[in-house]
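Technical note accompanying the year-one report. For the benefit of new consortium partners, we illustrate the data format agreed upon in the data management plan: each record pairs a sequence with a C-alpha coordinate string. No post-processing was applied to the example shown here.
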Amino acid sequence: MMVPQTQYARSGDVNIAYQVLGKGPVDLVLVPGWLSNVDAFWDNPEFARFLTRLASFSRLILFDKRGTGLSDRVAHMPELEIRMDDVRAVMDAVGSERAALFGYSEGGPMCALFAATYPGRTLALIMAGSFARRARAADYPCGMAAEDIEAYAIEVEREWGGPIGLDLRAPSMAHDPRFRQWWARFLRMSASPAAAATLIRMNGQIDVRHVLPTLRVPTVILHSADDRVVDMGCGRDLAQRIPGAKLVELHGADHLPWLEHADAVVAEIEELLTGVRHCAEPDRVLTTMLFTDIVASTEKAATLGDRGWHDLLDSHHALVRRQLAVFRGREIDTAGDGFLASFDGPARAVRCACAISDDVRSLGIEVRAGLHTGECEIMGEKLGGIAVHIGARVASVAGPGEVLVSSTVKDLVAGSGLCFADRGIRPLKGVSGEWRLFAAERQAA
Protein backbone atom coordinates (compact mmCIF):
# COMPACT_ATOMS: atom_id res chain seq x y z
CA MET A 1 0.00 0.00 0.00
CA MET A 2 1.33 3.42 -0.99
CA VAL A 3 1.38 5.78 2.01
CA PRO A 4 0.51 9.38 1.09
CA GLN A 5 3.28 11.96 1.31
CA THR A 6 3.25 13.99 4.52
CA GLN A 7 3.33 17.72 3.84
CA TYR A 8 3.12 20.82 6.02
CA ALA A 9 0.84 23.84 6.11
CA ARG A 10 1.69 27.03 7.98
CA SER A 11 -0.86 28.08 10.60
CA GLY A 12 0.43 31.28 12.19
CA ASP A 13 3.90 30.33 13.37
CA VAL A 14 3.14 26.58 13.64
CA ASN A 15 3.64 23.85 11.03
CA ILE A 16 0.71 21.46 10.66
CA ALA A 17 1.37 18.02 9.16
CA TYR A 18 -1.18 16.78 6.63
CA GLN A 19 -1.76 14.15 3.95
CA VAL A 20 -4.10 14.01 0.95
CA LEU A 21 -5.33 10.92 -0.85
CA GLY A 22 -8.11 10.13 -3.30
CA LYS A 23 -9.49 12.10 -6.23
CA GLY A 24 -13.20 12.12 -5.44
CA PRO A 25 -15.38 15.12 -6.27
CA VAL A 26 -15.96 16.01 -2.60
CA ASP A 27 -13.31 17.09 -0.11
CA LEU A 28 -13.51 15.29 3.26
CA VAL A 29 -11.42 16.51 6.20
CA LEU A 30 -10.84 13.92 8.90
CA VAL A 31 -10.44 15.58 12.30
CA PRO A 32 -8.92 13.11 14.76
CA GLY A 33 -9.89 12.61 18.36
CA TRP A 34 -7.60 12.80 21.36
CA LEU A 35 -4.30 12.05 19.54
CA SER A 36 -3.09 11.26 16.05
CA ASN A 37 -0.06 10.60 13.88
CA VAL A 38 -0.81 10.57 10.16
CA ASP A 39 2.14 8.33 9.37
CA ALA A 40 1.32 5.81 12.11
CA PHE A 41 -2.28 5.57 10.86
CA TRP A 42 -1.00 3.47 7.97
CA ASP A 43 0.79 0.96 10.19
CA ASN A 44 -2.58 -0.43 11.26
CA PRO A 45 -4.31 -2.43 8.47
CA GLU A 46 -7.82 -1.75 9.84
CA PHE A 47 -7.24 2.00 9.89
CA ALA A 48 -5.47 1.95 6.51
CA ARG A 49 -8.39 0.10 4.93
CA PHE A 50 -10.87 2.54 6.50
CA LEU A 51 -9.01 5.57 5.13
CA THR A 52 -8.63 4.00 1.69
CA ARG A 53 -12.36 3.33 1.49
CA LEU A 54 -13.17 6.93 2.46
CA ALA A 55 -10.78 8.11 -0.25
CA SER A 56 -12.57 5.96 -2.85
CA PHE A 57 -15.38 8.53 -3.08
CA SER A 58 -13.70 11.69 -1.76
CA ARG A 59 -10.50 13.64 -1.68
CA LEU A 60 -9.55 12.76 1.88
CA ILE A 61 -7.52 15.27 3.91
CA LEU A 62 -5.79 14.09 7.08
CA PHE A 63 -3.87 16.21 9.57
CA ASP A 64 -2.30 16.20 13.03
CA LYS A 65 -3.42 18.86 15.47
CA ARG A 66 -0.69 21.18 16.67
CA GLY A 67 1.18 19.70 19.59
CA THR A 68 0.51 16.12 18.42
CA GLY A 69 1.75 13.64 15.84
CA LEU A 70 4.03 15.14 13.20
CA SER A 71 2.91 18.74 13.72
CA ASP A 72 4.97 21.24 15.68
CA ARG A 73 5.09 20.84 19.44
CA VAL A 74 3.77 23.91 21.25
CA ALA A 75 4.24 25.41 24.69
CA HIS A 76 0.50 25.47 25.39
CA MET A 77 -2.09 23.06 23.99
CA PRO A 78 -4.60 24.97 21.83
CA GLU A 79 -8.25 25.70 22.42
CA LEU A 80 -10.92 24.94 19.79
CA GLU A 81 -10.60 28.33 18.11
CA ILE A 82 -6.93 27.76 17.35
CA ARG A 83 -7.64 24.22 16.14
CA MET A 84 -10.14 25.70 13.67
CA ASP A 85 -7.39 27.91 12.29
CA ASP A 86 -5.27 24.82 11.73
CA VAL A 87 -8.05 23.16 9.72
CA ARG A 88 -8.50 26.31 7.68
CA ALA A 89 -4.76 26.49 7.00
CA VAL A 90 -4.68 22.90 5.77
CA MET A 91 -7.72 23.44 3.55
CA ASP A 92 -6.08 26.53 2.07
CA ALA A 93 -2.84 24.64 1.48
CA VAL A 94 -4.60 21.96 -0.59
CA GLY A 95 -6.90 24.41 -2.40
CA SER A 96 -10.11 23.25 -0.74
CA GLU A 97 -12.83 25.89 -0.86
CA ARG A 98 -15.48 23.73 0.83
CA ALA A 99 -15.26 20.39 2.56
CA ALA A 100 -17.25 17.94 4.60
CA LEU A 101 -15.88 17.59 8.12
CA PHE A 102 -15.65 14.21 9.84
CA GLY A 103 -14.68 14.43 13.49
CA TYR A 104 -14.54 11.48 15.82
CA SER A 105 -14.47 11.70 19.62
CA GLU A 106 -12.88 15.03 20.65
CA GLY A 107 -12.63 16.00 16.98
CA GLY A 108 -16.42 16.30 16.78
CA PRO A 109 -16.94 19.51 18.78
CA MET A 110 -14.24 21.29 16.78
CA CYS A 111 -15.96 20.26 13.54
CA ALA A 112 -19.28 21.57 14.84
CA LEU A 113 -17.70 24.88 15.82
CA PHE A 114 -16.02 25.16 12.41
CA ALA A 115 -19.31 24.44 10.62
CA ALA A 116 -21.08 27.12 12.64
CA THR A 117 -18.28 29.66 12.18
CA TYR A 118 -17.55 28.96 8.51
CA PRO A 119 -20.80 27.68 6.97
CA GLY A 120 -19.62 28.78 3.53
CA ARG A 121 -16.68 26.39 3.73
CA THR A 122 -18.61 23.44 5.18
CA LEU A 123 -20.48 20.99 2.96
CA ALA A 124 -21.56 18.55 5.66
CA LEU A 125 -20.80 17.43 9.19
CA ILE A 126 -20.17 13.92 10.50
CA MET A 127 -19.58 13.28 14.21
CA ALA A 128 -18.71 9.79 15.49
CA GLY A 129 -18.53 8.81 19.16
CA SER A 130 -18.64 12.48 19.99
CA PHE A 131 -20.23 14.99 22.35
CA ALA A 132 -21.21 18.63 22.83
CA ARG A 133 -19.76 18.79 26.34
CA ARG A 134 -17.25 16.43 27.94
CA ALA A 135 -17.87 17.04 31.63
CA ARG A 136 -21.05 16.09 33.46
CA ALA A 137 -23.33 18.87 34.63
CA ALA A 138 -26.73 19.17 36.26
CA ASP A 139 -28.28 19.74 32.82
CA TYR A 140 -25.91 17.30 31.09
CA PRO A 141 -26.01 13.95 32.92
CA CYS A 142 -24.39 11.94 30.09
CA GLY A 143 -21.02 13.65 30.57
CA MET A 144 -18.00 12.31 32.43
CA ALA A 145 -17.55 13.22 36.09
CA ALA A 146 -14.88 15.91 36.59
CA GLU A 147 -13.01 13.80 39.14
CA ASP A 148 -12.91 10.89 36.66
CA ILE A 149 -11.44 13.13 33.97
CA GLU A 150 -8.69 14.24 36.34
CA ALA A 151 -8.03 10.69 37.54
CA TYR A 152 -7.68 9.52 33.96
CA ALA A 153 -5.26 12.35 33.12
CA ILE A 154 -3.09 11.35 36.08
CA GLU A 155 -3.22 7.68 35.10
CA VAL A 156 -2.25 8.48 31.50
CA GLU A 157 0.82 10.46 32.50
CA ARG A 158 1.86 7.79 35.00
CA GLU A 159 1.27 4.74 32.79
CA TRP A 160 2.23 6.20 29.39
CA GLY A 161 4.08 3.81 27.10
CA GLY A 162 1.70 0.85 26.96
CA PRO A 163 -1.70 0.30 25.31
CA ILE A 164 -3.47 2.55 27.80
CA GLY A 165 -7.19 3.10 27.28
CA LEU A 166 -7.53 0.40 24.63
CA ASP A 167 -9.91 -1.75 26.68
CA LEU A 168 -12.37 1.15 26.70
CA ARG A 169 -11.81 2.48 23.19
CA ALA A 170 -11.75 -0.81 21.27
CA PRO A 171 -13.15 -3.76 23.22
CA SER A 172 -13.32 -5.78 19.99
CA MET A 173 -9.51 -5.60 19.66
CA ALA A 174 -8.50 -5.36 23.31
CA HIS A 175 -7.02 -8.87 23.37
CA ASP A 176 -5.38 -8.80 19.95
CA PRO A 177 -1.57 -8.72 20.56
CA ARG A 178 -0.85 -7.11 17.20
CA PHE A 179 -3.35 -4.34 17.73
CA ARG A 180 -2.24 -3.73 21.33
CA GLN A 181 1.34 -3.33 20.18
CA TRP A 182 0.34 -0.92 17.43
CA TRP A 183 -1.89 1.13 19.78
CA ALA A 184 0.90 1.57 22.35
CA ARG A 185 3.35 2.65 19.66
CA PHE A 186 0.75 4.92 18.05
CA LEU A 187 0.19 6.75 21.35
CA ARG A 188 3.92 7.18 21.96
CA MET A 189 4.37 8.57 18.45
CA SER A 190 1.41 10.93 18.85
CA ALA A 191 2.27 12.84 22.03
CA SER A 192 4.40 12.98 25.14
CA PRO A 193 2.87 11.84 28.45
CA ALA A 194 2.44 15.42 29.67
CA ALA A 195 0.87 16.57 26.40
CA ALA A 196 -1.56 13.63 26.41
CA ALA A 197 -2.63 14.42 29.96
CA THR A 198 -2.97 18.13 29.19
CA LEU A 199 -5.24 17.36 26.24
CA ILE A 200 -7.46 15.21 28.44
CA ARG A 201 -7.87 18.08 30.92
CA MET A 202 -8.45 20.62 28.16
CA ASN A 203 -11.02 18.40 26.44
CA GLY A 204 -12.80 18.16 29.78
CA GLN A 205 -13.58 21.88 29.44
CA ILE A 206 -15.20 21.64 26.00
CA ASP A 207 -18.81 22.80 25.74
CA VAL A 208 -20.24 23.74 22.32
CA ARG A 209 -23.91 23.25 23.13
CA HIS A 210 -24.74 26.88 22.47
CA VAL A 211 -23.59 26.75 18.82
CA LEU A 212 -25.31 23.53 17.79
CA PRO A 213 -28.78 25.03 17.11
CA THR A 214 -27.17 27.44 14.61
CA LEU A 215 -25.86 24.68 12.34
CA ARG A 216 -27.42 24.58 8.89
CA VAL A 217 -25.45 21.84 7.12
CA PRO A 218 -26.40 18.20 6.53
CA THR A 219 -25.33 16.32 9.64
CA VAL A 220 -24.95 12.66 10.61
CA ILE A 221 -24.31 11.56 14.19
CA LEU A 222 -22.79 8.07 14.55
CA HIS A 223 -22.54 6.50 17.99
CA SER A 224 -21.99 3.04 19.47
CA ALA A 225 -24.84 1.99 21.72
CA ASP A 226 -22.46 0.61 24.36
CA ASP A 227 -19.63 3.12 23.96
CA ARG A 228 -17.55 3.05 27.17
CA VAL A 229 -15.72 6.32 26.51
CA VAL A 230 -18.58 8.62 25.49
CA ASP A 231 -22.05 7.63 26.64
CA MET A 232 -24.69 7.03 23.97
CA GLY A 233 -26.72 9.77 25.62
CA CYS A 234 -24.18 12.30 24.32
CA GLY A 235 -24.88 11.18 20.76
CA ARG A 236 -28.62 11.50 21.27
CA ASP A 237 -28.09 14.95 22.79
CA LEU A 238 -26.16 16.09 19.70
CA ALA A 239 -28.90 14.87 17.37
CA GLN A 240 -31.55 16.74 19.38
CA ARG A 241 -29.63 20.01 19.37
CA ILE A 242 -28.55 20.08 15.68
CA PRO A 243 -31.45 20.92 13.31
CA GLY A 244 -32.20 18.05 10.95
CA ALA A 245 -29.37 15.83 12.20
CA LYS A 246 -29.58 12.11 11.47
CA LEU A 247 -28.72 9.83 14.38
CA VAL A 248 -27.29 6.40 13.57
CA GLU A 249 -27.05 4.12 16.59
CA LEU A 250 -24.40 1.47 16.02
CA HIS A 251 -24.64 -1.86 17.80
CA GLY A 252 -21.51 -2.63 19.77
CA ALA A 253 -19.06 -0.99 22.15
CA ASP A 254 -16.10 0.24 20.06
CA HIS A 255 -15.43 3.94 20.42
CA LEU A 256 -12.95 4.05 17.53
CA PRO A 257 -14.96 4.28 14.27
CA TRP A 258 -12.68 2.24 12.02
CA LEU A 259 -13.00 -1.16 13.69
CA GLU A 260 -16.21 -3.17 14.21
CA HIS A 261 -18.38 -0.39 12.73
CA ALA A 262 -16.16 0.52 9.77
CA ASP A 263 -18.59 -0.71 7.09
CA ALA A 264 -21.56 1.14 8.58
CA VAL A 265 -19.58 4.36 9.14
CA VAL A 266 -18.21 4.41 5.59
CA ALA A 267 -21.64 3.66 4.13
CA GLU A 268 -23.31 6.51 6.01
CA ILE A 269 -20.61 9.00 5.02
CA GLU A 270 -20.70 7.91 1.39
CA GLU A 271 -24.47 8.26 1.24
CA LEU A 272 -24.32 11.70 2.87
CA LEU A 273 -21.69 12.99 0.43
CA THR A 274 -22.69 11.23 -2.81
CA GLY A 275 -26.32 10.25 -2.38
CA VAL A 276 -25.54 6.56 -2.82
CA ARG A 277 -23.93 3.82 -0.81
CA HIS A 278 -22.04 0.88 -2.19
CA CYS A 279 -21.67 -2.56 -0.69
CA ALA A 280 -18.47 -2.97 1.21
CA GLU A 281 -15.66 -4.46 -0.80
CA PRO A 282 -15.24 -8.11 0.08
CA ASP A 283 -12.54 -8.49 2.70
CA ARG A 284 -12.35 -12.26 2.32
CA VAL A 285 -11.88 -14.35 -0.80
CA LEU A 286 -11.63 -18.04 -1.66
CA THR A 287 -8.24 -18.63 -3.26
CA THR A 288 -5.57 -21.27 -3.78
CA MET A 289 -2.27 -20.47 -2.10
CA LEU A 290 1.05 -21.74 -3.48
CA PHE A 291 4.20 -21.76 -1.38
CA THR A 292 7.62 -22.68 -2.78
CA ASP A 293 11.13 -22.65 -1.39
CA ILE A 294 14.52 -23.94 -2.48
CA VAL A 295 15.64 -27.19 -0.89
CA ALA A 296 18.93 -27.02 1.08
CA SER A 297 19.28 -23.31 0.31
CA THR A 298 21.69 -22.63 3.18
CA GLU A 299 24.14 -25.27 1.97
CA LYS A 300 23.81 -24.06 -1.61
CA ALA A 301 24.50 -20.47 -0.60
CA ALA A 302 27.58 -21.53 1.36
CA THR A 303 28.91 -23.46 -1.65
CA LEU A 304 28.31 -20.69 -4.19
CA GLY A 305 29.28 -17.70 -2.09
CA ASP A 306 27.35 -14.41 -1.90
CA ARG A 307 27.76 -13.36 -5.54
CA GLY A 308 26.99 -16.79 -6.97
CA TRP A 309 23.99 -17.26 -4.66
CA HIS A 310 22.48 -13.90 -5.58
CA ASP A 311 22.89 -14.68 -9.28
CA LEU A 312 21.14 -18.02 -8.75
CA LEU A 313 18.29 -16.36 -6.85
CA ASP A 314 17.83 -13.85 -9.65
CA SER A 315 17.52 -16.68 -12.17
CA HIS A 316 15.18 -18.62 -9.88
CA HIS A 317 12.92 -15.61 -9.31
CA ALA A 318 12.73 -14.85 -13.02
CA LEU A 319 11.78 -18.45 -13.79
CA VAL A 320 9.07 -18.54 -11.10
CA ARG A 321 7.60 -15.25 -12.28
CA ARG A 322 7.45 -16.48 -15.89
CA GLN A 323 5.42 -19.48 -14.81
CA LEU A 324 3.14 -17.35 -12.63
CA ALA A 325 2.41 -15.21 -15.67
CA VAL A 326 1.65 -18.30 -17.80
CA PHE A 327 -0.78 -19.77 -15.26
CA ARG A 328 -2.32 -16.43 -14.17
CA GLY A 329 -0.94 -16.56 -10.64
CA ARG A 330 -0.50 -13.44 -8.54
CA GLU A 331 2.72 -12.97 -6.61
CA ILE A 332 1.85 -12.05 -3.04
CA ASP A 333 5.23 -12.09 -1.34
CA THR A 334 8.84 -13.16 -1.73
CA ALA A 335 10.94 -13.94 1.32
CA GLY A 336 14.51 -15.06 0.72
CA ASP A 337 14.29 -18.04 -1.63
CA GLY A 338 10.54 -18.64 -1.18
CA PHE A 339 7.49 -17.48 -3.10
CA LEU A 340 3.88 -17.03 -2.02
CA ALA A 341 1.37 -16.75 -4.85
CA SER A 342 -2.41 -16.94 -5.18
CA PHE A 343 -4.62 -18.40 -7.90
CA ASP A 344 -8.34 -18.17 -8.57
CA GLY A 345 -8.27 -21.73 -9.96
CA PRO A 346 -6.72 -24.66 -8.07
CA ALA A 347 -5.95 -26.70 -11.21
CA ARG A 348 -3.85 -23.87 -12.67
CA ALA A 349 -2.09 -23.55 -9.32
CA VAL A 350 -1.11 -27.24 -9.31
CA ARG A 351 0.09 -27.12 -12.92
CA CYS A 352 2.08 -23.98 -12.19
CA ALA A 353 3.74 -25.60 -9.17
CA CYS A 354 4.69 -28.65 -11.25
CA ALA A 355 6.11 -26.46 -14.03
CA ILE A 356 8.20 -24.49 -11.51
CA SER A 357 9.46 -27.67 -9.87
CA ASP A 358 10.50 -29.14 -13.21
CA ASP A 359 12.07 -25.99 -14.64
CA VAL A 360 14.29 -25.07 -11.68
CA ARG A 361 16.21 -28.32 -12.12
CA SER A 362 17.93 -26.60 -15.03
CA LEU A 363 19.50 -24.33 -12.41
CA GLY A 364 20.82 -27.26 -10.44
CA ILE A 365 18.34 -26.88 -7.59
CA GLU A 366 15.15 -28.46 -6.32
CA VAL A 367 12.13 -26.73 -4.78
CA ARG A 368 9.42 -28.01 -2.52
CA ALA A 369 5.89 -26.73 -3.10
CA GLY A 370 2.70 -26.79 -1.07
CA LEU A 371 -0.86 -25.79 -2.00
CA HIS A 372 -4.08 -25.27 -0.10
CA THR A 373 -7.41 -23.72 -1.06
CA GLY A 374 -9.33 -21.74 1.53
CA GLU A 375 -10.86 -18.42 2.49
CA CYS A 376 -8.23 -15.72 2.93
CA GLU A 377 -8.44 -12.26 4.44
CA ILE A 378 -7.61 -9.41 2.07
CA MET A 379 -5.07 -7.10 3.72
CA GLY A 380 -4.30 -4.46 1.10
CA GLU A 381 -2.05 -6.20 -1.43
CA LYS A 382 -1.45 -9.10 0.97
CA LEU A 383 -3.50 -12.09 2.03
CA GLY A 384 -3.83 -13.47 5.54
CA GLY A 385 -5.78 -15.98 7.57
CA ILE A 386 -5.58 -19.63 8.53
CA ALA A 387 -5.63 -20.78 4.89
CA VAL A 388 -2.29 -19.06 4.33
CA HIS A 389 -0.77 -20.79 7.38
CA ILE A 390 -2.06 -24.17 6.20
CA GLY A 391 -0.51 -23.68 2.76
CA ALA A 392 2.84 -22.80 4.33
CA ARG A 393 2.74 -25.88 6.57
CA VAL A 394 1.89 -28.16 3.64
CA ALA A 395 4.95 -26.84 1.79
CA SER A 396 7.15 -27.37 4.84
CA VAL A 397 6.55 -31.14 4.81
CA ALA A 398 7.00 -31.58 1.05
CA GLY A 399 10.08 -33.41 -0.17
CA PRO A 400 12.61 -32.21 -2.77
CA GLY A 401 10.89 -31.72 -6.11
CA GLU A 402 7.52 -32.61 -4.60
CA VAL A 403 4.28 -30.69 -5.13
CA LEU A 404 2.17 -31.47 -2.10
CA VAL A 405 -1.50 -30.45 -1.85
CA SER A 406 -4.21 -30.62 0.78
CA SER A 407 -7.25 -32.82 0.26
CA THR A 408 -9.24 -29.64 -0.38
CA VAL A 409 -7.20 -28.92 -3.49
CA LYS A 410 -7.42 -32.53 -4.70
CA ASP A 411 -11.20 -32.56 -4.34
CA LEU A 412 -11.63 -29.25 -6.16
CA VAL A 413 -9.67 -30.33 -9.24
CA ALA A 414 -11.69 -33.51 -9.82
CA GLY A 415 -12.18 -33.96 -13.56
CA SER A 416 -9.17 -31.84 -14.48
CA GLY A 417 -7.02 -34.82 -15.48
CA LEU A 418 -4.54 -34.18 -12.67
CA CYS A 419 -3.38 -37.27 -10.78
CA PHE A 420 -2.23 -37.52 -7.19
CA ALA A 421 -0.49 -40.01 -4.94
CA ASP A 422 -1.81 -40.35 -1.40
CA ARG A 423 0.83 -39.32 1.15
CA GLY A 424 -1.32 -40.22 4.12
CA ILE A 425 -2.51 -38.24 7.13
CA ARG A 426 0.05 -35.77 8.48
CA PRO A 427 0.00 -33.30 11.36
CA LEU A 428 0.74 -29.70 10.38
CA LYS A 429 2.68 -27.66 12.92
CA GLY A 430 0.54 -24.97 14.52
CA VAL A 431 -2.65 -26.15 12.75
CA SER A 432 -5.21 -28.18 14.67
CA GLY A 433 -6.25 -31.64 13.50
CA GLU A 434 -4.64 -34.05 11.06
CA TRP A 435 -4.49 -33.46 7.34
CA ARG A 436 -4.51 -35.92 4.45
CA LEU A 437 -1.98 -34.78 1.87
CA PHE A 438 -1.44 -35.76 -1.76
CA ALA A 439 1.51 -35.40 -4.14
CA ALA A 440 0.82 -34.21 -7.66
CA GLU A 441 2.05 -36.72 -10.26
CA ARG A 442 3.66 -35.44 -13.44
CA GLN A 443 1.71 -36.24 -16.57
CA ALA A 444 3.46 -37.98 -19.42
CA ALA A 445 4.24 -35.74 -22.37
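Partners are asked to follow this layout when depositing records. The mean pLDDT is 91.
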